[in-house]
Design goal:
The chain has 16 helices and no strands. It is an all-alpha fold. It starts with 13 loop residues before the first helix and ends in a 16-residue tail after the last helix.
């Protein structure tokens, strides 16, 4: 399983941008649960916590394609630093407003700035891989590795932020996220040798979201994001209902852990099935895997169920980003990948909001039905529109 990954990092500067990308991505798994833990702890309301998290994710959904367009036009080295600095200041302001118990609107305002200036670091790193291995079957392995990195982040991030916020200080989880973001993003911006070429005149024109296949993928990932957003919030409430709120990070890490394992396996294989076929099958497994979690009333059984439910996450994301790389013109690639992050962000926002309200209305276990419903919706949309994901013969992936 490890064999195909050997030699992937041998090029000049690759190890440096991979490490910087890993550190810079840590906040994507820490911010949501960090905000929920902090605000629910201070205000006692999961609805407020979910709404603030949703505001940040919605702002990210709007800002990601815009920052991606700026990166394609001016380059990562010029765009990343100002975004990172403003993002750090906004996150610090959110914590200050919470500490001073300022009016609730200040939480929403600062959360909007945090989300709007958050960079899609995964898209930035994948764009570098595309510049290095574009048109090669090694790009599948590189994208699989990035999906595994995402899941390592989602295994370690929630556990770390939960430990810091529940055992030491409720603010420390977000402080750690701020430090990771600033260090990783600035280090990535410094890696000029591997950044994709700049296209100042945007000769390809238009925007990737107008490509039918990209629009379909975005719709699917809105539904998938709703799964992630609802599971994040509901799982914290579920752990508290079970009297073990401190293990909520471990439960979320189990969800990501299943995806990490499947991502390693998925990326090590050479597939005869088309990208479109792999994508649809992964969506089916994703929906089936989430079916049991609404019927579990024990934290340790839930950890096992979430681990199994996470198996289809990496294959779905790997094939999705591979489809984007083949459907979008190279000068628009960062923006194209950012639209996937935008779709996920919109879904996460909707899922966090719905999860918070349903948790307070019907309880955490029944609220998990929100996640199952969103997964089924993703499957229906993906299957119904899969014809839009057929690739031109010249863009078909290398077959084994």
């Amino acid at each position: 399983m490890v064999g195909p990954y050997r030699g992937l990092f041998d090029g000049p500067g690759i190890k440096a941008f991979v490490l910087a990308g890993f550190v810079g991505r840590m906040p994507m798994s820490m911010l949501g649960i960090g905000v929920v833990l902090l605000i629910s702890g201070v205000t006692g309301s999961y609805a407020t916590a979910g709404a603030v998290a949703a505001a940040s994710n919605l702002a990210f959904a709007v800002g990601a394609p815009l920052s991606g367009r700026l990166v394609d036009r001016f380059g990562q080295g010029r765009i990343i630093p100002p975004f990172a600095v403003v993002n750090a200041l906004a996150l610090a302001a959110l914590m200050v407003c919470t500490f001073l118990r300022l009016h609730e609107w200040t939480l929403y305002l600062t959360a909007l700035v945090v989300g709007g200036t958050s960079l899609s670091v995964g898209s930035l790193v994948r764009a570098r891989w595309s510049a290095i291995h574009g048109g090669s079957d090694r790009l599948h392995t590189a994208f699989a590795f990035e999906s595994v990195v995402d899941e390592v982040v989602f295994v370690t991030g929630p556990a770390l932020v939960t430990l810091l916020a529940t055992q030491l200080n409720p603010y420390l989880g977000l402080v750690a996220a701020l430090v990771f973001m600033l260090a990783g993003c600035l280090a990535l911006a410094a890696q000029r040798r591997t950044q994709p070429p700049v296209t100042p005149h945007r000769s390809a024109g238009g925007t990737p979201i107008l490509i039918p296949g990209i629009a379909l993928l975005a719709c699917v990932y809105v539904a998938m994001g709703a799964v992630f957003g609802s599971v994040d919030l509901i799982t914290v409430a579920f752990a508290e209902e079970q009297g073990v709120k401190g293990v909520s990070g471990l439960l979320l890490a189990s969800f990501a852990g299943g995806s990490m394992v499947s991502g390693l396996w998925f990326g090590s294989r050479h597939w005869r099935i088309s990208l479109r076929g792999r994508f649809v099958r992964a969506l089916l497994v994703f929906a089936l895997g989430l079916a049991p979690i609404s019927f579990i009333g024990n934290a340790w059984l839930m950890a096992a169920a979430l681990f199994l439910a996470g198996f289809a996450i990496s294959p779905t994301l790997i094939t999705g980003f591979s489809l984007v790389e083949r459907l979008v013109p190279a000068p628009l690639l960062t923006e194209g990948m950012a639209w996937i992050s935008t779709a996920l962000g919109i879904g996460v926002a909707a899922g966090a909001w719905a999860g918070g309200h349903f948790t307070e209305t019907v309880g955490a276990s029944d609220a998990y039905l929100i996640a199952l419903g969103a997964a089924v919706l993703a499957l229906l949309v993906g299957v119904g529109g899969s014809g839009l994901l057929r690739l031109p013969a010249a863009a078909s992936p290398v077959q084994s």
